[in-house]
Design a protein that fits this description.
The chain is 47% helix and 13% strand. By secondary structure, the protein is α/β, with parallel strands linked by helices. The protein is globular and about 65 Å long.
C-alpha cells in the first residue's frame, strides 16, 4: 500500500482528508488508493440524516456527535452542502461547522459540495464513506444537503436513515409524499418545544400509519437544548443492534454495494464508451444526418451503438 493509505489505516485525519479531496477532484491515483483500502472496510456504522432546509439537522448531528464521543466511540461527519455557483465547492465549510468538535482527534468533519447532484448527496460521498471506514471511524454521520424533495439517495449510502422534520410540517408533508418516508427508519420531530408540537405529532403519526412501508420510529427532540437527543441516540443504537441480529444490516450493506457497483459501471460506460464513439468517424456521419434532419437524435444514437457493437 502507499504511504497515504498506510497513514489512513493508522488513523491520520490529514491523510483521510487528502484522499477525500483527491476523490472529489477525480485524481486517478485516488482510485488506486481506494482499491487498496477497500478490503479493510465494512465495520463503520453509517447513519443518514436527511430533511428539508431549516429543520435543524446540523444541530442534531452536533448533539449526536457529543453523545458518540461521550461513549468513547470515534465519529466522522460528512455534511453535504449546496454548491458554489463560482467554484463548485461547498458554500458552507467544515471550519464553521461544529467548532467544539474540530480539535477532537476522535472526530472528523468534512463538508462536501453537492456539485449539482440530485438526491441530497455529493457524487463522491459513497467513496468518502469507504475512506472513513478504513480510517477506523466507528460511526459515520451523513447529513444531506437539504434541498427539499429529492433526499432519498442517502438510503443507498447508509445503514439506517433519520428524517428530521419540524412541527410546522408544511413542505415536509410533501417531502413525505415524495418518497422519503419509504426510506426513513426514524422520523424526528425537532423543535418540539412549541405549542404546535402536539398537533404536528398526531398528524405525523396519521401519515406514517397510512403510508409507511416499514416500521418507523417517531421521536421528538429540541436540538437547541438537547431535549430528547439521548432517546434518539438510544433508538439508533437499538436499531443498529436489531438490524445486525436479524441479518437486515448485511442485506442493506449488500444492496448498498450493488448500487455502488451499478453506479460505477454506469460512469465507466458513459466515460469510456462515449469517448470511443465520439472519436469514431461514424459519429461525424451521424451528426451530419441529424443536422440535415434526415435522422432524429435518438435513432442516430441507437444506430451508432449498434454499428460499434455496443447495442
Amino acid at each position: 500500500m502507499s504511504t497515504l493509505t498506510d497513514a489512513i489505516e493508522s488513523g491520520d485525519r490529514r491523510a483521510v482528508a487528502r484522499l477525500i479531496t483527491k476523490l472529489e477532484n477525480r485524481i486517478p491515483s485516488a482510485y488506486t488508493d481506494l482499491a487498496a483500502l477497500f478490503p479493510h472496510t465494512g465495520t463503520a456504522k453509517v447513519i443518514g440524516i436527511t430533511g428539508a432546509p431549516g429543520v435543524g439537522k446540523s444541530t442534531l448531528v452536533d448533539r449526536i456527535v457529543a453523545l458518540i464521543r461521550a461513549a468513547s466511540h470515534s465519529c466522522a461527519v460528512l455534511a453535504v452542502d449546496p454548491s458554489s455557483p463560482i467554484s463548485g465547492g461547498a458554500l458552507l465549510g467544515d471550519r464553521i461547522r461544529m467548532p467544539e468538535h474540530a480539535v477532537d482527534d476522535g472526530v472528523f468533519i468534512r463538508s462536501m459540495s453537492a456539485r449539482g447532484t440530485l438526491g441530497g448527496l455529493a457524487p463522491t460521498a459513497w467513496a468518502a464513506v469507504h475512506v472513513l471506514d478504513a480510517g477506523k471511524y466507528e460511526f459515520v454521520l451523513l447529513e444531506t444537503v437539504g434541498v427539499g424533495q429529492s433526499e432519498i439517495a442517502v438510503a443507498g449510502a447508509a445503514d439506517l436513515v433519520v428524517l428530521v422534520m419540524t412541527p410546522d410540517l408544511g413542505d415536509s408533508v410533501q417531502t413525505l409524499k415524495a418518497g422519503v418516508l419509504e426510506v426513513a427508519d426514524v422520523i424526528v420531530l425537532n423543535k418540539s418545544d412549541g405549542p404546535a408540537a402536539s398537533r404536528a405529532l398526531r398528524e405525523l403519526r396519521a401519515i406514517v400509519d397510512g403510508a409507511a412501508q416499514q416500521p418507523v420510529s417517531i421521536l421528538q427532540t429540541v436540538g437547541l437544548d438537547g431535549t430528547g437527543v439521548d432517546g434518539l441516540w438510544f433508538e439508533l443504537q437499538s436499531l443498529l443492534a436489531s438490524f445486525a441480529a436479524s441479518g437486515e444490516l448485511m442485506r442493506r450493506r449488500s444492496a448498498r454495494l450493488r448500487g455502488e457497483l451499478i453506479r460505477s459501471l454506469d460512469e465507466a460506460l458513459r466515460t469510456d464508451v462515449l469517448s470511443e464513439i465520439v472519436a469514431d468517424p461514424q459519429f461525424c456521419s451521424a451528426l451530419t444526418e441529424v443536422a440535415g434532419r434526415r435522422v432524429d437524435p435518438v435513432s442516430a444514437a441507437r444506430l451508432l451503438l449498434a454499428s460499434l457493437g455496443h447495442y
